[in-house]
């Protein structure tokens, strides 16, 4: 567990942020961010299993997103995004572990799960570890555009030809 109060030597262990130095505030923020990431990782692991088992049906909901909105207070877009990420993380254990350890944040995980596959997971994890959240978003957006352009190019250059052999 990450220690939040008193993370810097000689800092007061009270809950009042006004009592902390700038260094103490920075350390406490980093600690709480790691705790938040670990909690988000646990939430997403539970959600992935809940979606897999279709747990929302038992209480009469029509979807997991509806259940999340009702029980967890998420808006429909946020609920759908959490479900998408939870399902993606089931196949991306290294990224899930990095979130659980606090090494990467929800923002980075949300971005890289749009493009990472089990085959490319380590590459995208490295990107998430080395870049800011804004940079990760930009890199993912750019890569998705490149992938779409490649797919369009392949579609337009695809052809089929055949030749019928003569009996001779």
Description:
Helices cover 63% and strands 0% of the residues. It is mostly helical. α5 packs parallel to α7. The longest helix is centred in the first third of the chain and has 32 residues, at 22-53. It is extended, with a radius of gyration of 23 Å. The termini are far apart.
Characterize this entry briefly.
The protein is an all-alpha fold and 168 residues long.
What's the topology here?
Layout: H1 22-53, H2 64-72, H3 76-89, H4 93-101, H5 106-112, H6 121-130, H7 133-157
Keywords:
7 helices, extended, 168 residues, disordered N terminus, mainly alpha, single chain
Uncertain spans: 1-10
How does the helix and strand content classify structurally?
mainly alpha
Helix content: 55-70%
Distance between the termini: 80 Å
Measured on Cα atoms, how large is the radius of gyration? 23 Å
Mean pLDDT: 87
Number of helices: 7
Strand content: under 5%
What shape does the CA trace take? extended
**Main beta-sheet strand count, sense and barrel state:** none
Annotation, overall tally of beta strands: 0
Order of helices and strands: HHHHHHH
């Amino acid at each position: 567990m990450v220690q939040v109060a008193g993370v810097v030597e000689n800092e007061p262990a009270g809950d009042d942020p006004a009592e902390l130095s700038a260094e103490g505030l920075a350390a406490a923020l980093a600690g709480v961010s790691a705790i938040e990431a670990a909690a988000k990782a646990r939430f997403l692991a539970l959600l992935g299993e809940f979606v897999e088992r279709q747990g929302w049906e038992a209480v009469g909901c029509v979807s997991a997103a509806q259940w999340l909105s009702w029980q967890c207070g998420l808006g429909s877009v946020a609920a759908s995004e959490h479900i998408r990420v939870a399902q993606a993380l089931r196949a991306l254990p290294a990224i899930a572990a990095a979130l659980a350890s606090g090494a990467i944040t929800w923002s980075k995980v949300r971005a890289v799960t749009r493009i990472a596959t089990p085959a490319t997971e380590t590459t995208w994890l490295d990107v998430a570890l080395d870049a800011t959240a804004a940079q990760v978003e930009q890199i993912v957006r750019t890569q998705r555009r490149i992938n779409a352009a490649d797919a369009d190019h392949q579609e337009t250059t695809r052809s089929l030809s055949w030749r019928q052999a003569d009996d001779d």
